[in-house]
# Entry
Amino acid sequence: MFHVKVGYPTREEERKIMDNQTEGTYQEPRAVVDVAQILRSRDTVRKVYIDDKLKQYIVNIVFATREPQAFGLGKLTDLISFGASPRATIALNLAARAHAFLRHRGYVIPEDIKAVGMDVLRHRVLLSYEAEAEELTSEKIVQQIFDAVDIP
# Structure
C-alpha cells in the first residue's frame, strides 16, 4: 500500500549480512501470524474511526499535489509534473488508520496522517525537469505541502 524509504547498511553491517546469508546453516522462515489473523487485523484497521474533517484534510493534501496554487503554493506549480492520484487518498486514509491502530487508538489524529504521509506520497509526486535542475526532491516538495495545508 505504501513504500518505506530504507537506507543502506554500513560496511560492517553489509559484511554481517553477507556472512549470515552465505555461511553456516540455513534456517527456514516460520510463520508468526496466520492468514485469519491478518484478515482480522485488516478489518479492524478499516473500523478505526477517522473524522470527516481529517478525511477532507487528506483530500486537501492530495489536491495540493495537483493544484498547489489553490493552497498558496504557486511556486510549486512548475515543479510538479504529476500530482498524486486518487489511490493516494485511499492509501493515506488506510495507512493513517493502521498507524493509529498500531498506537493502540481507535481513532485517527492529524499526527497519524503526517507520520505516514511522506511514505505514501514521495513516490506519487513526480517532479518536473525544473525541480530536478534545482536539485529538489519529492520529499522536499511533499514536506512543503504538509507545511502549507491547514490541519483541522
